[in-house]
Structures are given as C-alpha cells and as structure tokens.
C-alpha cells in the first residue's frame, strides 16, 4: 500500500492535468452530505471522525497507513487509477452512499 500511495503522489504531482482529465468509469451518486469521493481530498475525509469511520469500514487500514500523509491532497477517485483493486468502483460507490448520510459541514 505504501508503494501505491507513493507512486500515486509522484504521478499526480508530475502529471496533474492528465490525472484530472480522465473520465470517471463509474457513476457516483450525487453528493448530499457535502463530501464526495471525486472532489473531497483524503485529508479532509480523515480529519472528520465520521468520514474517517466510513473509510475504515470500506478500506480497512487505509486511514492509519503511515504513507497516507502523502495522499492527503488527492481524492479517492484519483487514487483509484493507481490502486484499482483497492479503490474499486463498488467501494467508491459504497463510500459515497455512506458519506451522503453524514450531515453537511
């Protein structure tokens, strides 16, 4: 996981326009709770205890990983292109569904 996050951080920092320009392969539900897997950075999600609990539910060990600090400015959708087996379309959809239930901040 550490290598994947490090690789994602390096790739995003050197190719930001490419990473942001790629189309999303799966539709994600509209944001009702204010957080989005496509627009909210990982740091913001981890800093909110309720959102962090959602991440821990669907991505066990992710929020506590030592290397997650390098990915704080990235979204979960951005990370998906570097670790598609971890950040699956189903996982992102499930996370978004739970994030939608959280009160707006």
From TrEMBL:
Top-level EC class: hydrolase
One Gene Ontology molecular-function label: hydrolase activity
EC numbers on record: 3.1.1.-
Signal peptide bounds: 1-21
Keyword tags: Hydrolase, Signal
Domain of life (superkingdom): Bacteria
Record-given protein name: Para-nitrobenzyl esterase
Species this chain originates from: Sphingobium boeckii
Highest classification ranks of the organism: Bacteria, Pseudomonadati, Pseudomonadota, Alphaproteobacteria, Sphingomonadales
